[in-house]
Write a structure and sequence with these properties.
Helix content is 74%, strand content 1%. By secondary structure, it is mainly alpha-helical. Strands 1-2 form a two-stranded antiparallel ribbon.
Amino acid sequence: MTTRPRALMAQWTTAVPVAAAVLLVLTWGRDLPGAVVALVTLVLAGAVLAAVHHAEVVAHRVGEPFGSLVLAVAVTIIEVALIVTLMADGGDKSSTLARDTVFAAVMITCNGVVGLSLLVASLRHRTAVFNPEGTGAALATVATLATLSLVLPTFTTSKPGPEFSTVQLTFAALSSLILYGLFIATLTIRHRDYFLPVTRQGRAITAEDHADAPSTRTALVSLGLLGLALIGVVGLAKGVSPTIEDVVDAAGLHHAVVGVIIALLVLLPETIAALRSARRDRVQTSLNLALGSAMASIGLTIPAVALATVWLPGPLVLGLGSIHMVLLALTVVVASLTVVPGRATPLQGGVHLVLFAAYLELAINP
């Protein structure tokens, strides 16, 4: 009875990433009519679900916290490539593209994904439990990276406007790489147990007992299909962005809403994976995905755009405005208070979701 559903799952999760890649090649750089946009949107949604499936297969094979790291890094690398590609197109709007995308990723993951995960887990299991040592280390790294890369440029005086000088940008890029490298070493080598899911008694769960791990061949195939699906997700999201821009402009909304929508689409696979883990009472895995994605977004994007400024024209604006700095500071404070006890109730999840709603409201109505 279970063989046929598994066979159907394997067929569609293999076919959809391939279809997304083919559709991306056929539509890249073209103006899309409404019917094609609808088709692209359907395939994009299927690619998101396929990416989540293959990420879970890989995660089951390699175990935590390596599994959440695979999805976070894969999404971010492709996202960085998209940012650099869009910046290469030039235009006045490209100067703030990296800043807006990175900040959107931080707010979506640290408030949206974290809030939803805590709310789902605590409603289902009364309280959401996680390891405060690992989560606190990840949060501290995200806060440091965000402050060095997005807040300091607003106050430096070497260049006019919220920009870094060449030396300052080089320092920020190297610092981002070093901190991210140290976090990866802590996550995978020295203190891996800090990032494992925990039981209600606080004991680390070192293995899953609900199913046998997939074979190495199956995991490698899923890893390749995961990459293909994520390329499709990011590329197709970029393809429908002109339609999104037209809708946003017709509604009279601020242009920053476009970046928020694109970021939501790109981060959708991680959001779904985090919610699935939260439903299974593996909140630590959800937090690894959320904070790891925020960290990778900053730690990989800033060095990439710093390198790209060698040949890209125009300024690189990284400094946040006053409203966004207040939201970032409040997010760090609230997240710190959430992490310290190692457990959370629906209240903490609701607080993070209100912060995320405030970010969305201010993006629409600044």
